[in-house]
Amino acid sequence: MHESFYAFIQELSPEFNIDINRIKSLLKSREVRKGEFLFRKGDICEFVAFTYKGCLRSFVLKDDKEYTLFFHTENQTFGDYESFQKNKPACFSTQAIEDSEVLIFNHQAMLLFEKAPGGQKLLRLVAEDLAFLLRDKLLSLLIDTPQERYLKLIENEPQLLQRIPQYYLASYLGIEPESLSRLKRRVYKNQKS
Question: Within 13 Å, how many C-alpha atoms sit on residue 58's CB side?
Answer without folding.
Answer: 18
